[in-house]
Amino acid sequence: MTNLERNLNLAEEWSGTFKIMGDPTRLKLLNAIHFAGQFKLSVSELADATGVRVATTSAALRAMELNGTVTSTRDGRSILYGIADDHVHQLLHWIGSSHLHQH
């Protein structure tokens, strides 16, 4: 594989991630999840934290889950969200997003 082919493959690999992160609502949600930590916030808590309507938050999370950007887990009656893609986690650090907790 040539360097050009590798670069073209990277463009295909990353385009979905950049599409997700290019949307301000989705990026706010990712930042809120990243800051709070994995599987700490529900849909309504994410909506409150970001100032986004619950229905919009739910739809954005659903799209990101289908894309593989986030994942969810059930905790009783709540569904909590975490970042599923380590590339997204790294990009959030690169743009300056921090954690509430230390690793």
TrEMBL record:
<dbReference type="InterPro" id="IPR011991">
    <property type="entry name" value="ArsR-like_HTH"/>
</dbReference>
<dbReference type="InterPro" id="IPR036388">
    <property type="entry name" value="WH-like_DNA-bd_sf"/>
</dbReference>
<feature type="domain" description="HTH arsR-type">
    <location>
        <begin position="8"/>
        <end position="103"/>
    </location>
</feature>
<protein>
    <submittedName>
        <fullName>Metalloregulator ArsR/SmtB family transcription factor</fullName>
    </submittedName>
</protein>
<keyword id="KW-0804">Transcription</keyword>
<dbReference type="InterPro" id="IPR051011">
    <property type="entry name" value="Metal_resp_trans_reg"/>
</dbReference>
<dbReference type="InterPro" id="IPR001845">
    <property type="entry name" value="HTH_ArsR_DNA-bd_dom"/>
</dbReference>
<keyword id="KW-0238">DNA-binding</keyword>
<dbReference type="InterPro" id="IPR036390">
    <property type="entry name" value="WH_DNA-bd_sf"/>
</dbReference>
<keyword id="KW-0805">Transcription regulation</keyword>
